[in-house]
Amino acid sequence: MEKIGFSLLLLIIFILSLLFRSSFVLISILIGSFIAILNNFYNLDFNIGDFKIFSEIAISIIFFSLGLGYTFEGFYKNIKKTIFGSLMDLLNLLIPFFVTLIITHNFFLSLLVGLLIYPSSTAIVVKILEFRKKLASKAAEIMVGILLFEDIVLIVILSIFSSKTSLFSLQTIFLTVLCITTLFLFSKLLNKYSLFFERYLQEESGIFFVLGYFLLIHYFCLYFHLPESLIIFLAGILIPQQISYTIKSKIEIFKNFSIGIFVIDFLMKTKFELITIPNLILIITPLFVIIKILTIYLAFRKLKVKFKVEDLIYFLPRGEFSAYISKLGQLELVAFISIIFSNLITLFFKILQQRIIDKQKKQEKQYTL
Q1: Of 310, 161, 281, 174, whose CA–CA distance to 230 is shortest?
Q2: What is residue 9's predicted lDDT score, i.e. its pLDDT?
Q3: 309-342 pLDDT, tens per residue?
Protein backbone atom coordinates (compact mmCIF):
# COMPACT_ATOMS: atom_id res chain seq x y z
CA MET A 1 0.00 0.00 0.00
CA GLU A 2 2.90 2.36 0.79
CA LYS A 3 4.30 1.92 -2.72
CA ILE A 4 0.92 2.84 -4.24
CA GLY A 5 0.75 5.87 -1.93
CA PHE A 6 4.23 7.01 -2.94
CA SER A 7 3.42 6.55 -6.64
CA LEU A 8 0.37 8.78 -6.18
CA LEU A 9 2.58 11.30 -4.36
CA LEU A 10 4.85 11.62 -7.41
CA LEU A 11 1.84 12.27 -9.63
CA ILE A 12 0.57 14.91 -7.18
CA ILE A 13 3.94 16.69 -7.27
CA PHE A 14 3.76 16.75 -11.08
CA ILE A 15 0.21 18.15 -11.13
CA LEU A 16 0.87 20.81 -8.47
CA SER A 17 4.11 21.88 -10.19
CA LEU A 18 2.11 22.57 -13.35
CA LEU A 19 -0.79 24.15 -11.48
CA PHE A 20 1.37 26.59 -9.50
CA ARG A 21 3.95 26.92 -12.32
CA SER A 22 6.59 26.26 -9.71
CA SER A 23 9.71 24.18 -9.08
CA PHE A 24 9.22 20.50 -8.26
CA VAL A 25 11.59 21.03 -5.30
CA LEU A 26 9.33 23.72 -3.82
CA ILE A 27 6.25 21.51 -4.25
CA SER A 28 8.11 18.52 -2.78
CA ILE A 29 9.02 20.61 0.27
CA LEU A 30 5.44 21.77 0.83
CA ILE A 31 4.03 18.26 0.41
CA GLY A 32 6.74 16.77 2.65
CA SER A 33 5.92 19.36 5.32
CA PHE A 34 2.22 18.50 5.15
CA ILE A 35 3.00 14.79 5.53
CA ALA A 36 5.35 15.58 8.45
CA ILE A 37 2.48 17.32 10.26
CA LEU A 38 0.22 14.30 9.67
CA ASN A 39 2.98 11.91 10.81
CA ASN A 40 3.51 13.85 14.05
CA PHE A 41 -0.09 14.54 15.05
CA TYR A 42 -1.76 11.38 13.76
CA ASN A 43 1.12 8.92 14.30
CA LEU A 44 1.34 7.92 10.65
CA ASP A 45 4.40 6.10 9.36
CA PHE A 46 4.54 7.14 5.72
CA ASN A 47 8.01 6.60 4.19
CA ILE A 48 9.70 6.47 0.80
CA GLY A 49 10.48 2.74 1.00
CA ASP A 50 12.43 1.40 -2.00
CA PHE A 51 13.36 4.91 -3.17
CA LYS A 52 15.67 5.49 -0.21
CA ILE A 53 18.82 5.13 -2.32
CA PHE A 54 17.89 8.34 -4.19
CA SER A 55 17.65 10.18 -0.87
CA GLU A 56 21.06 8.84 0.21
CA ILE A 57 22.94 10.05 -2.89
CA ALA A 58 21.16 13.42 -3.31
CA ILE A 59 23.77 15.72 -1.72
CA SER A 60 26.68 13.88 -3.33
CA ILE A 61 25.14 14.09 -6.78
CA ILE A 62 24.58 17.85 -6.30
CA PHE A 63 28.28 18.42 -5.53
CA PHE A 64 29.33 16.18 -8.42
CA SER A 65 27.05 18.02 -10.83
CA LEU A 66 28.23 21.37 -9.48
CA GLY A 67 31.81 20.66 -10.56
CA LEU A 68 30.83 19.56 -14.09
CA GLY A 69 31.41 22.23 -16.72
CA TYR A 70 33.63 24.38 -14.51
CA THR A 71 37.39 24.74 -14.26
CA PHE A 72 39.46 25.94 -11.32
CA GLU A 73 40.20 29.11 -13.28
CA GLY A 74 36.49 29.62 -13.96
CA PHE A 75 35.63 29.30 -10.28
CA TYR A 76 38.36 31.76 -9.34
CA LYS A 77 37.21 34.36 -11.90
CA ASN A 78 33.55 34.10 -10.84
CA ILE A 79 34.32 34.43 -7.14
CA LYS A 80 36.88 37.23 -7.66
CA LYS A 81 34.32 39.42 -9.43
CA THR A 82 31.82 39.08 -6.60
CA ILE A 83 34.05 38.97 -3.52
CA PHE A 84 32.27 41.91 -1.82
CA GLY A 85 28.84 40.32 -2.26
CA SER A 86 30.23 36.96 -1.13
CA LEU A 87 31.66 38.46 2.06
CA MET A 88 28.36 40.24 2.74
CA ASP A 89 26.57 36.93 2.26
CA LEU A 90 29.04 35.29 4.66
CA LEU A 91 27.37 37.35 7.41
CA ASN A 92 24.47 34.92 7.07
CA LEU A 93 26.77 32.24 8.43
CA LEU A 94 28.38 34.42 11.11
CA ILE A 95 25.28 36.16 12.52
CA PRO A 96 23.31 32.96 13.30
CA PHE A 97 26.56 31.40 14.57
CA PHE A 98 27.33 34.16 17.11
CA VAL A 99 23.69 34.61 18.19
CA THR A 100 23.36 30.87 18.84
CA LEU A 101 26.76 30.77 20.55
CA ILE A 102 25.68 33.52 22.96
CA ILE A 103 22.50 31.61 23.78
CA THR A 104 23.82 28.03 23.93
CA HIS A 105 27.60 28.40 24.56
CA ASN A 106 28.01 25.45 22.18
CA PHE A 107 30.45 26.06 19.31
CA PHE A 108 29.56 23.01 17.19
CA LEU A 109 25.81 23.54 17.53
CA SER A 110 26.16 27.24 16.73
CA LEU A 111 28.18 26.51 13.59
CA LEU A 112 25.54 24.08 12.38
CA VAL A 113 22.77 26.65 12.88
CA GLY A 114 24.81 29.12 10.81
CA LEU A 115 25.27 26.50 8.09
CA LEU A 116 21.53 25.81 8.05
CA ILE A 117 20.79 29.40 7.03
CA TYR A 118 23.83 30.17 4.87
CA PRO A 119 23.57 28.00 1.72
CA SER A 120 21.08 28.35 -1.10
CA SER A 121 21.10 26.11 -4.18
CA THR A 122 23.37 27.01 -7.11
CA ALA A 123 21.95 24.23 -9.29
CA ILE A 124 18.34 25.37 -8.87
CA VAL A 125 19.10 29.08 -9.27
CA VAL A 126 21.17 28.56 -12.43
CA LYS A 127 18.37 26.44 -13.90
CA ILE A 128 15.81 29.19 -13.16
CA LEU A 129 18.07 31.84 -14.70
CA GLU A 130 18.59 29.70 -17.81
CA PHE A 131 14.84 29.12 -18.13
CA ARG A 132 14.16 32.86 -17.89
CA LYS A 133 17.05 33.66 -20.25
CA LYS A 134 18.74 35.88 -17.67
CA LEU A 135 21.98 33.95 -17.21
CA ALA A 136 23.97 36.49 -19.25
CA SER A 137 22.81 39.49 -17.18
CA LYS A 138 25.03 41.37 -14.72
CA ALA A 139 22.73 40.47 -11.80
CA ALA A 140 22.98 36.77 -12.74
CA GLU A 141 26.77 36.97 -12.87
CA ILE A 142 26.84 38.43 -9.33
CA MET A 143 24.33 35.85 -8.08
CA VAL A 144 26.21 32.86 -9.48
CA GLY A 145 29.53 34.16 -8.09
CA ILE A 146 28.06 34.53 -4.59
CA LEU A 147 26.43 31.10 -4.77
CA LEU A 148 29.67 29.47 -5.90
CA PHE A 149 31.45 31.05 -2.93
CA GLU A 150 28.74 29.57 -0.68
CA ASP A 151 29.37 26.16 -2.21
CA ILE A 152 33.14 26.35 -1.63
CA VAL A 153 32.64 27.31 2.04
CA LEU A 154 30.09 24.52 2.44
CA ILE A 155 32.32 21.91 0.76
CA VAL A 156 35.27 22.75 3.02
CA ILE A 157 33.25 22.67 6.26
CA LEU A 158 31.27 19.55 5.33
CA SER A 159 34.49 17.78 4.37
CA ILE A 160 35.68 18.29 7.94
CA PHE A 161 32.37 17.22 9.48
CA SER A 162 31.68 14.24 7.23
CA SER A 163 34.93 12.43 7.97
CA LYS A 164 34.00 10.09 10.83
CA THR A 165 37.65 9.43 11.54
CA SER A 166 40.06 12.32 12.07
CA LEU A 167 40.44 14.31 8.87
CA PHE A 168 44.10 14.82 9.71
CA SER A 169 44.93 11.18 10.47
CA LEU A 170 47.66 9.67 8.30
CA GLN A 171 45.27 7.06 6.89
CA THR A 172 42.66 9.64 5.87
CA ILE A 173 45.26 11.96 4.35
CA PHE A 174 46.91 9.11 2.42
CA LEU A 175 43.64 7.73 1.02
CA THR A 176 42.35 11.22 0.18
CA VAL A 177 45.54 12.12 -1.71
CA LEU A 178 45.50 8.70 -3.43
CA CYS A 179 41.86 9.14 -4.47
CA ILE A 180 42.38 12.69 -5.82
CA THR A 181 45.55 11.63 -7.64
CA THR A 182 43.68 8.72 -9.27
CA LEU A 183 40.88 11.07 -10.33
CA PHE A 184 43.46 13.48 -11.78
CA LEU A 185 45.20 10.75 -13.80
CA PHE A 186 41.84 9.41 -15.01
CA SER A 187 40.87 12.94 -16.12
CA LYS A 188 44.04 13.04 -18.24
CA LEU A 189 42.95 9.78 -19.86
CA LEU A 190 39.47 11.19 -20.50
CA ASN A 191 40.99 14.32 -22.00
CA LYS A 192 43.33 12.38 -24.30
CA TYR A 193 40.53 10.17 -25.63
CA SER A 194 37.73 12.72 -25.26
CA LEU A 195 36.33 12.13 -28.77
CA PHE A 196 36.12 8.39 -28.11
CA PHE A 197 34.38 8.86 -24.73
CA GLU A 198 32.11 11.59 -26.10
CA ARG A 199 30.91 9.27 -28.86
CA TYR A 200 30.04 6.37 -26.56
CA LEU A 201 28.68 8.50 -23.72
CA GLN A 202 26.00 9.75 -26.10
CA GLU A 203 24.79 6.18 -26.56
CA GLU A 204 21.93 4.87 -24.40
CA SER A 205 24.41 2.77 -22.43
CA GLY A 206 26.39 5.93 -21.52
CA ILE A 207 24.28 6.40 -18.41
CA PHE A 208 25.77 3.21 -16.95
CA PHE A 209 29.27 4.68 -17.14
CA VAL A 210 28.15 7.98 -15.60
CA LEU A 211 26.29 6.39 -12.68
CA GLY A 212 28.96 3.72 -12.19
CA TYR A 213 31.71 6.35 -12.02
CA PHE A 214 29.77 8.57 -9.63
CA LEU A 215 28.59 5.74 -7.32
CA LEU A 216 32.08 4.17 -7.19
CA ILE A 217 33.52 7.43 -5.80
CA HIS A 218 30.52 7.96 -3.51
CA TYR A 219 30.67 4.54 -1.85
CA PHE A 220 34.48 4.48 -1.77
CA CYS A 221 34.41 7.69 0.30
CA LEU A 222 31.70 6.31 2.58
CA TYR A 223 33.50 3.01 3.12
CA PHE A 224 36.83 4.61 4.04
CA HIS A 225 35.26 7.65 5.82
CA LEU A 226 36.90 10.16 3.48
CA PRO A 227 35.83 13.83 3.00
CA GLU A 228 33.24 12.99 0.35
CA SER A 229 32.01 16.55 -0.33
CA LEU A 230 35.50 17.64 -1.40
CA ILE A 231 36.40 14.50 -3.37
CA ILE A 232 33.09 14.21 -5.22
CA PHE A 233 33.24 17.91 -6.16
CA LEU A 234 36.80 17.51 -7.47
CA ALA A 235 35.69 14.42 -9.39
CA GLY A 236 33.23 16.60 -11.26
CA ILE A 237 35.52 19.55 -11.87
CA LEU A 238 38.39 17.34 -13.10
CA ILE A 239 36.28 15.88 -15.92
CA PRO A 240 37.32 17.58 -19.20
CA GLN A 241 34.87 20.20 -20.45
CA GLN A 242 34.60 18.41 -23.81
CA ILE A 243 32.58 15.60 -22.22
CA SER A 244 31.36 17.24 -18.98
CA TYR A 245 28.20 18.60 -20.60
CA THR A 246 27.28 15.17 -21.94
CA ILE A 247 27.78 13.64 -18.49
CA LYS A 248 25.79 16.45 -16.88
CA SER A 249 22.87 15.91 -19.25
CA LYS A 250 22.91 12.18 -18.47
CA ILE A 251 22.91 12.64 -14.71
CA GLU A 252 20.55 15.64 -14.54
CA ILE A 253 17.34 13.62 -14.30
CA PHE A 254 18.74 11.54 -11.42
CA LYS A 255 19.89 14.70 -9.62
CA ASN A 256 16.49 16.36 -9.89
CA PHE A 257 14.62 13.26 -8.76
CA SER A 258 17.07 12.66 -5.88
CA ILE A 259 16.68 16.22 -4.56
CA GLY A 260 12.89 15.90 -4.51
CA ILE A 261 13.00 12.51 -2.79
CA PHE A 262 15.61 13.70 -0.28
CA VAL A 263 13.64 16.71 0.96
CA ILE A 264 10.43 14.67 1.17
CA ASP A 265 12.22 11.92 3.11
CA PHE A 266 13.81 14.42 5.49
CA LEU A 267 10.65 16.41 6.18
CA MET A 268 8.50 13.31 6.69
CA LYS A 269 10.92 12.01 9.35
CA THR A 270 11.07 15.30 11.31
CA LYS A 271 9.85 14.75 14.86
CA PHE A 272 8.47 17.88 16.48
CA GLU A 273 8.97 16.59 20.02
CA LEU A 274 12.72 16.03 19.56
CA ILE A 275 13.92 19.54 20.43
CA THR A 276 17.65 19.66 21.16
CA ILE A 277 18.04 23.44 21.08
CA PRO A 278 16.54 26.34 23.09
CA ASN A 279 13.09 27.47 21.91
CA LEU A 280 14.45 30.97 21.40
CA ILE A 281 16.55 29.74 18.47
CA LEU A 282 13.46 28.20 16.88
CA ILE A 283 11.59 31.49 17.28
CA ILE A 284 14.29 33.68 15.73
CA THR A 285 15.12 31.28 12.86
CA PRO A 286 12.74 33.14 10.49
CA LEU A 287 14.56 36.35 11.46
CA PHE A 288 17.85 34.84 10.26
CA VAL A 289 16.16 34.13 6.90
CA ILE A 290 14.98 37.75 6.62
CA ILE A 291 18.49 39.00 7.47
CA LYS A 292 19.81 36.88 4.58
CA ILE A 293 17.54 38.75 2.16
CA LEU A 294 18.62 42.13 3.61
CA THR A 295 22.35 41.41 3.33
CA ILE A 296 21.99 40.38 -0.33
CA TYR A 297 19.91 43.51 -0.94
CA LEU A 298 22.67 45.71 0.54
CA ALA A 299 25.33 43.87 -1.48
CA PHE A 300 23.43 44.43 -4.74
CA ARG A 301 22.91 48.13 -3.91
CA LYS A 302 26.60 48.57 -3.09
CA LEU A 303 27.62 46.85 -6.34
CA LYS A 304 25.12 49.07 -8.24
CA VAL A 305 23.46 46.10 -9.90
CA LYS A 306 19.93 46.33 -11.28
CA PHE A 307 17.82 43.65 -9.64
CA LYS A 308 14.27 42.62 -8.83
CA VAL A 309 12.80 41.31 -5.59
CA GLU A 310 12.72 37.80 -7.06
CA ASP A 311 16.53 37.94 -7.43
CA LEU A 312 16.81 38.26 -3.64
CA ILE A 313 14.39 35.38 -3.10
CA TYR A 314 16.75 33.07 -4.99
CA PHE A 315 19.21 33.28 -2.06
CA LEU A 316 16.84 31.77 0.50
CA PRO A 317 17.75 28.33 1.91
CA ARG A 318 16.17 25.89 -0.54
CA GLY A 319 16.09 22.85 1.69
CA GLU A 320 18.49 20.13 0.56
CA PHE A 321 21.66 21.49 2.21
CA SER A 322 19.84 22.67 5.34
CA ALA A 323 18.27 19.24 5.73
CA TYR A 324 21.61 17.46 5.31
CA ILE A 325 23.43 19.72 7.78
CA SER A 326 20.70 19.42 10.41
CA LYS A 327 21.29 15.65 10.61
CA LEU A 328 24.82 16.28 11.86
CA GLY A 329 23.53 17.78 15.12
CA GLN A 330 19.88 16.73 15.50
CA LEU A 331 18.66 20.14 14.38
CA GLU A 332 15.89 18.81 12.15
CA LEU A 333 13.26 21.12 13.65
CA VAL A 334 15.40 24.24 13.07
CA ALA A 335 15.92 23.16 9.46
CA PHE A 336 12.20 22.39 9.14
CA ILE A 337 11.26 25.94 10.22
CA SER A 338 13.93 27.52 8.01
CA ILE A 339 12.91 25.49 4.95
CA ILE A 340 9.18 26.05 5.37
CA PHE A 341 9.52 29.78 6.01
CA SER A 342 11.86 30.28 3.03
CA ASN A 343 9.72 28.33 0.62
CA LEU A 344 6.46 29.93 1.74
CA ILE A 345 8.05 33.31 0.97
CA THR A 346 9.12 31.96 -2.42
CA LEU A 347 5.65 30.60 -3.16
CA PHE A 348 4.02 33.88 -2.08
CA PHE A 349 6.18 35.93 -4.45
CA LYS A 350 5.65 33.45 -7.29
CA ILE A 351 1.87 33.66 -6.93
CA LEU A 352 2.02 37.46 -6.60
CA GLN A 353 4.28 37.75 -9.65
CA GLN A 354 2.01 35.50 -11.71
CA ARG A 355 -1.04 37.55 -10.76
CA ILE A 356 0.72 40.74 -11.83
CA ILE A 357 1.66 39.15 -15.17
CA ASP A 358 -1.92 37.90 -15.70
CA LYS A 359 -3.28 41.35 -14.85
CA GLN A 360 -0.92 43.02 -17.33
CA LYS A 361 -1.95 40.58 -20.06
CA LYS A 362 -5.61 41.27 -19.32
CA GLN A 363 -5.05 45.04 -19.52
CA GLU A 364 -3.12 44.64 -22.81
CA LYS A 365 -5.96 42.53 -24.21
CA GLN A 366 -8.56 45.13 -23.20
CA TYR A 367 -6.42 47.88 -24.72
CA THR A 368 -6.15 46.07 -28.08
CA LEU A 369 -9.94 45.57 -28.10
Answers
A1: 161
A2: 82
A3: 777 777 777 667 777 777 776 777 777 778 777 7
CB 114 within 8 A of CB 313: no
| Count of Cβ atoms closer than 10 Å to residue 288 Cβ | 24
Cα–Cα distance for residue pair 22/241, rounded to 1 Å: 31
- List alpha helices for 270-278, DSSP H: none
Q: Please count the CA atoms within 13 angstroms of the CA of 152 that sit on its side-chain side.
A: 17
Write the DSSP assignment of 183-245 as a string of letters: HHHHHHHHHHTHHHHHHHHTSTTHHHHHHHHHHHHHHHHHHTT--HHHHHHHHHHTS-HHHHH
- Predicted structure pTM score: 0.81
Give the whole-angstrom CA distance, residue 170 versus residue 279.
41
Q: With 70 as the cut, is the pLDDT of residue 67 above it? A: yes
Q: Which residues contact 307 (CB under 8 A, 6 or more apart)?
A: 139, 300
319 closest CA partner among 263, 281, 257: 263
Is residue 317 within 8 Å of residue 338, measured between CB atoms?
Answer: yes
* Rounded mean pLDDT, 351-358: 72
User: If we measure between CA atoms, which residue out of 121, 47, 105, 41 comes closest to residue 323?
Assistant: 121
In angstroms, the CA 226 to CA 238 distance is 18
Q: Give exposure, 73-90, as e/b (b: 16+ Cβ within 10 Å).
A: eebeebbeebeebbebbb
For residue 293, give the nearest of 242, 331, 348 by alpha carbon. 348
pLDDT digits (tens, 9 = 90+) for 15-32: 888 887 767 777 777 787
Alpha helices in the chain (DSSP H): 2-19, 24-42, 52-67, 72-81, 83-104, 107-117, 122-131, 138-162, 170-192, 194-201, 206-223, 228-237, 241-269, 279-302, 309-313, 320-326, 332-368
For the stretch 191-249, pLDDT in tens is 888 888 888 888 888 889 999 999 999 999 888 888 888 899 999 999 988 898 889 88
